[in-house]
Amino acid sequence: MAKHGLFVGLITLDLLYLATAPPSNNQKIVASDYTVAAGGPATNAAVAFSYLSNRATLLGMVGAHPITHLIKADLEDYKVAIADLDSSHTQPPPVSSIIISRATGDRAVISINATNTQIDSDRLPPDILQGVDIVLVDGHQMEIGYATLELAKANNIPVVLDGGSWKPGFERLLPFVDYAICSANFYPPNCRQSQEVIAYLSAMGIPHIAISHGEKPIEYLSTGNSGYVQVPQIKAVDTLGAGDIFHGAFCHYILRENFIDALALAAKIATGSCQFFGTRQWMQHRL
Fold first, then answer.
1. CB–CB of 198/188 below 8 Å?
2. Residue 164: which of 192, 146, 140, 200 has the closest Cα?
3. Which CATH class is domain 4-285?
4. 232-266 pLDDT, tens per residue?
């Protein structure tokens, strides 16, 4: 049965190039392939969740600049509904330029996040959680995220944290989180290694915590039980967005499976996505 997920955070326009390597100073290079797609952690997670036969609503800021039609068209193609926090905003949306190295799948990124486009919590639509089964927040709209999670907790809706990197204000969100799914680059204050991160999040009352380490096993602590989840080994073509896709797939599976199985199944999808260029091609090839 289809579930409804709300994904709160950053919405960008991503320009992706496949090349031998990023350019050095004063060097021009020619890409062998390119693609354009909506991006951002919550955005890519919403696309993955929708692809897995669910309903996805993306809560963030798009605005009315002419290039936003590219974002809207992409998300419409993948059946992701947009709840725009400021549809009259006329400035360009955040744009990311990303170069994928063909030999390794590594990426170089230059981007602008949502720091200059923060929306106050009073802009939160009052009925935004109607019919919602799960909420994911990436921390790029901190005030909106806090208001959403406060409401989600009051309505017993499970909350997933996309912990890509630590952002000031996360400490306010953490007490509402049920599932903290973090990257190896997520370091709360005074934390320098994964065990310290897990201890910090556990002290915040989060019952289920996982830290991904790329192609290495996922470290977890779940209601007092710790361990590792193995990640499938593949030849990566492009690792961009793999963490976001992992989060979206996790939101799908955690509504159907236990925590450990949800991590393993989500890791399988995220790893598979790395075998294709860009953040969308994997959906055309997945069996």
1. no
2. 140
3. alpha beta
4. 888 888 778 899 999 999 999 999 999 999 999 99
